[in-house]
Amino acid sequence: MSAMSDAQPGSRAVGRPREARADQAIRAATLELMAEQGAQALRMGDVASRAGVGKATIYRRYRSKDELVTDAVGGLVSEIAVPDTGSTRSDLLALMNEAVELYSNSLAAGLMPTVVDEMSRNPEFAEIARDRFLRGRRAALREVFKRGVGRGDLRGDLDVELALDVLGGPLFYRLMITGGPIDARLASNVVELILRGFAPASGATKTPRKRPANTKDRTK
Question: Which of 22, 25, 36, 142 has its CA 20 to 30 A from that of 69?
Fold first, then answer.
């Protein structure tokens, strides 16, 4: 009896399960090629060749190059652990040290200029990148600032969005513009800048009362 006749009605052949190793290889190849040649020059065939998979394997996972790129880049920071040490300074320092460790890596450092360049060229990619790469991360980091306000370490009227920009701005400015060191000193200085710049306002200083001009001197 043939295999066809042995099959039960309504049954279907079980396809080969997705291999985690293939997923990892595709993402790694995408990141490496982007860092080497930019997003514009990236080709699905090149990714497939470096990952050791067929193009069809990639297209089963991603409908477009934009999806592939944003998924690969988003994976670099998808597992962000939001610290809660009980100290706003320690929480912020942990976050900055994590960022320093990530962007000291030559691959991540090479990727960011490429990602920013592609965002400026491609509005659709920019929206996907902001949604996958930025929004979730900023939402998580926002909690650290809110806790800092609750503890009284940061001012009650804190502009959280501005504080988030200040937290990451110096690191990306050095990465993209000046090429300055991205190290523990940078992390520490940024944290001190935030704690001092967004500290609660000190109590209002009392000014001496002025004697009314029309008050007569009663000592006379």
Answer: 142
